[in-house]
């Protein structure tokens, strides 16, 4: 688990992580993710409310903002590192993201990066799950 505290402007102030896990544990690409414009739109229907990671079989892009997470290994809502309250799911990034160097970002052996938020403490948490 990787935690980031955010200042009043929303920018990261400091990062802390659990023992032996840090930014490298998130599988951050050395060459950075490719810049992209993203359009957000409300999607209706059961398929968009809950997508099963195992059934997508790499045929669907499961990146999303909000909604319900598509867990790779099982639900894992982290507690806030300060107040210990369960954090709210914010977004997930699928393993198919292109990098600046022309590669594809893989979270582990092909999984998902999840981001969570605590309003009270202005802390985000990031974790990934893979097969």
Strand order of the largest sheet: 2-1-6-5-4-3
Assess the beta-strand content as a share of residues. 25-35%
Shape: globular
> Number of helical segments?
2
Q: What is the overall pLDDT average?
A: 79
- Strand count: 6
Distance between the termini: 17 Å
The residue ranges in which pLDDT falls below 50 over 5 or more consecutive positions are 18-24
Rounded to an integer, what's the Rg over CA atoms? 15 Å
Biggest sheet details: 6 strands, antiparallel
Q: Pairing-aware structural class of the strands and helices?
A: mainly beta
Fraction of residues in helix: under 10%
| N-to-C SSE string, H for helix and E for strand | EEHHEEEE
Walk me through this protein's architecture.
The structure is a single chain. With 131 residues, the chain is mostly beta strands. A six-stranded antiparallel β-sheet has the order 2-1-6-5-4-3, with no helix packed on it. It is globular and about 35 Å long. About 5% of the residues have low confidence.
Descriptors for this entry?
mainly beta; 131 residues; globular; 2 helices; six-stranded antiparallel β-sheet
How are the elements arranged and paired?
Blueprint (H helix, E strand, L loop, with lengths): L1 E5 L5 E6 L28 H4 L3 H4 L7 E2 L22 E7 L16 E8 L4 E8 L1
Antiparallel strand pairs: 1-2, 1-6, 3-4, 4-5, 5-6
Summarize the structure.
With 131 residues, this protein is mainly β. The protein contains 2 helices and 6 strands, in the order ββααββββ.
